[in-house]
Design goal:
about 0% strand, single chain, mainly alpha
Amino acid sequence: MPHSRKTLAVLVLLSVLVAVVGTLPVWANTQDADNKTTVQLTEDQKKELAALHKDILAKKKELISKYVEYGVISKEKGEKIISRLEKRYERLEQNGFVPHWEKCKKKGSH
């Protein structure tokens, strides 16, 4: 049983990580009064952010895969979630890793 406790502890830790990362948009403020982006990142900053986002994406995929493995969610649902995560990363990459929060605000999710 210690192995299952360890696995549960890892899942709880990863869930907390996902929850914390999910709140980052609330903390960031890169728009002026007209909701236009005012920050221009350097190439080094973009590379650093890309690496962080890739690490987060990999951990989220790992977490979703574990939920599928343990039967918490179906394989199809897991694949759909992973696809959305990958699309979100692609949008960030296209935007030079400067997120556009106003879209989230319009949907009421933040």
